[in-house]
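Extended Data, panel c. Modelled sequence:
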Amino acid sequence: MDETIKGSQSLIFRNAPYLISAASVTGSKETEGPLGKLFDMTSEDDLFGAQTWEEAESTMQKEACVLALGKAHVAPEEVRYLFGGDLLRQGIATSMGVEGLQIPMFGLYGACSTSGEALALAAMSAAAGYGEYMLAVTSSHFGSAEKEFRFPLGYASQRPLSAHWTVTGSGAFLVRSQERAEQGGTAQECLAGGRTAEGSARQEKAGQKSHVRIAGVTVGKIVDYGLKDSQNMGACMAPAAMDTIVRNFEDMGRTEQDYDRIITGDLGYVGQSILFDLVRGKGFDIRERHLDCGMTIFDQQTQDTHAGGSGCGCAAVTLASFVLPKIEKGEWKRVLFVPTGALMSTVSFNEGASVPGIAHGIVLEHC
């Protein structure tokens, strides 16, 4: 079997691509949270100068992509493929947001796990040599999500304490494929501090020196425990997060001790406690190494967000602004990033269907 393939759901890249730049764009409530000063672009106007919530979300995606490309000094025409998605029907926030870039694109839908899906596909394509640059982007907007899945904001509906607050934000990530000489070795060599002088020189000359690589992925399966409460997405997504995390351990022959942090997308306070119990039932204990983006982006004590943040933008902007800089600096050597998604629609909810979950694991390493 190809040494790239690990177990039933995972891949380890022999020539792991670099994540060379990232950008985050957020709204007003996110700016008031603990990470507010870390975002690349913020706006007090959640409409971002547009006429509708949907147009505002498209604007965020466009700005995030432009910022990520600008940081790496890469023109849109140099990008081979774009992988993007959002929460809206037919992915209109993405298609209308990135239209002007004219990059060949794949529209994705993985609910709040879409940032993981996009990064996995971008890394797989880059590692396979299908192009030098791949762009991954996701977004969500509180106004457009409430309008799409629950009630228009003017309805002023009550929200249960288990409910999440959809993050108004967009995160974009530029992935680059390089030859082994440019990379300076395998993922294991990078963790040990190794890199060839030739590789470092080439990256610095290109203005794209990166200390973060996507070393592998664990693609998630749909997991359905039969829960039907769409206002308690943490409980709906926790089983999928457990399944992917445990599968990553088993496929790659690792335990929680092999990661500095295991980061879920938006389980929130309710989902986190369920995840801990489920993972413990499989023989692992991740409590000391776990971080949830939905619990990190908002302050539960001062911001009325109940169970925490959610949405495609939640994991994406937290990764771009908070997680990647820590990996870049070497504070965290290896991170398992696991965005989580509740796969529901207004149709499935109104027909009484359960809410399945999915989670994708991205292994990020300091090099």
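Residues 53-72 form the longest helix (20 residues). This feature is highlighted in the accompanying rendering.
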